[in-house]
Write a structure and sequence with these properties.
This is Pyruvate kinase. GO terms for molecular function: ATP binding; kinase activity; magnesium ion binding; potassium ion binding; pyruvate kinase activity. Its EC number is 2.7.1.40. The chain is an alpha/beta fold. Helices cover about 35% and strands about 20% of the residues. The radius of gyration is 23 Å and the shape is elongated.
């Protein structure tokens, strides 16, 4: 992470970026996370790219690999694409059954009602339902466009009665665990039970240290965000599909609400969808895209994610460089809003005190975090200076990698029981240039699992 950028960057790996030379170039830009979209699963290339990214890691540079599951999504079937004009009537028929029309999953027919809006490809096309007799849905196009096969379809404002994890998801989860992914993004989460179900599957696979990121892209997920955050390790604000549940002018406030909720819990929020969409085809972003990125940074997002820009765009490296540049500019002129401890829990109050102390004395925070709780608590309170988080667990380093302002360092031979823990961390931090002579360092750690209860302050002396 650039010392002053603070907000983290996640890119999506795809045909435009999965060659080794492109991944290496993107890695050199300081990207922290790499998302693999399992809706477009490519076994050979995913495994190869994940393996190569692991070769780019070092103890000072962990990389976080995220498996983004397809989830219970409904897609149009196979047909020849055709143009539609606003006012045209289009017929939808159950996939696999005889009948003329656009094939779609049968579940749609059990939910769609007259005047419902069918949203195709996250709103690029929209149709108003005229009638649904259980065998044919007749719908009127609301905008001009090209109707293409295999595109997503949703009913605006309604959840569909689908399982939280499909058979495809279960197979993909197994692959992700075997390939060494660090986090799983759960698509179309609706309630906390969806997260709990995924956690059970991971535990059955012996992967309890894999983090779960709930993608918030349904109205139900927004309503249930508190309980979802109880169980999830972070959230991804999927703005495209949220437009299937909220009017466009509401997306800004929904995004702010979700980011604030995640920060109150000390869990990372990733903002995604169309951040630099125009860069799929152009080497420079639009002015409005620049403002959108700055807005997400100012709202307090922990990470920003590129999707099609790096997966399928013409300018993947340029998109990363622009996102870095904009995020750095936004961070330089943005003062973080204070967050009060969400509870009177002693560890929360201590973490807030550590940050306040470091801010007052312009100190750097040197923290030891075994399971990630100390790291989360410190990130929550947004210290002005660097937070260098040492850990003896690689999974914790890769998780801290997604939290705003944290610089994770992996040292497997550290232990919270070391009598010279602080001295070892400080000596290493000085040797690699993270801390310099004259710096004031605030050291913190937890002596018990999950705790943050130790504080020491020291001024780094020059070597004689």
């Amino acid at each position: 992470m650039d010392a002053q950028r603070r907000v983290k960057i996640v890119v999506t790996v795809g045909p435009a970026s999965w060659l080794e030379e492109t991944l290496q170039a993107i890695g050199r830009e300081g990207v922290e996370g790499f998302r693999f979209n399992f809706s477009h699963f490519d076994h050979e290339n995913f495994r190869r790219a994940a393996s190569y990214l692991r070769s780019l890691e070092n103890p000072l540079r962990p990389l976080t690999l995220i498996a983004d599951l397809q989830g219970p999504v409904v897609r149009l079937g196979e047909f020849s694409e055709f143009p539609v004009k606003a006012g045209d009537t289009v017929k939808f028929v159950p996939a696999g059954e005889a009948g003329e029309g656009v094939p779609v999953d049968k579940v749609i027919f059990s939910v769609a009602a007259e005047n419902d809006i069918l949203s195709v490809e996250a709103g690029r096309l929209a149709f108003r339902v005229l009638r649904n007799d259980g065998h044919v849905i007749a719908a009127q196009a609301l905008v001009d466009g090209l109707l293409k096969p295999r595109k997503t379809l949703a009913i605006k404002g309604k959840d569909l009665p689908l399982p939280s994890l499909t058979q495809k998801d279960l197979k993909d989860l197994k692959f992700a665990v075997e390939a060494g992914f660090d986090a799983v993004a759960l698509s179309f989460v609706r309630r906390a039970e969806d997260v709990a179900r995924a956690r059970e599957v991971l535990e059955d696979l012996g992967a309890s240290d894999v983090r779960l990121i709930a993608k918030i892209e349904t109205g139900s997920a927004v309503e249930n965000i508190d309980r979802i955050l109880d169980l999830a390790d972070g959230i991804l604000v999927a703005r495209g599909d949220l437009a299937n549940y909220y009017d466009l002018e509401k997306i800004y406030s929904v995004q702010q609400f979700l980011i604030s909720k995640a920060r109150q819990r000390g869990k990372p929020s990733i903002v995604a969808t169309q951040l630099l969409e125009s860069m799929i085809d152009n080497p420079v972003p639009t002015r409005s895209e620049v403002v959108d990125v700055v807005t997400a940074v100012k709202m307090g997002a922990d990470a920003l994610m590129l999707a099609g820009e790096t997966a399928a765009g013409k300018y993947p490296l340029e998109a990363v460089r622009w996102l870095k540049k904009i995020a750095l500019e936004a961070a330089q002129f943005h003062e973080e809003e204070a967050v009060e401890p969400g509870s009177s829990e002693a560890y929360e109050v201590i973490a807030r005190g550590v940050v306040a102390l470091a801010d007052i004395i312009s100190g750097k925070i040197l923290a030891f975090s075994e399971g990630g709780n100390t790291a989360r608590r410190l990130a929550k309170y947004r210290p002005r200076g660097p937070v260098i988080v040492y850990t003896n667990r690689l999974s914790t380093a890769r998780y801290a990698n997604l939290l705003r302002g944290l610089i994770p360092v992996y040292m497997p031979d550290l232990s919270k029981t070391d009598v010279n823990l602080f001295e070892r961390m400080l000596e290493h931090a000085v040797s690699v240039g993270l801390v310099s002579a004259g710096d004031i360092v605030v050291f913190t750690a937890g002596r018990r699992p999950g705790a943050t209860d130790l504080i020491t302050v020291e001024k780094v002396k020059p070597k004689l």
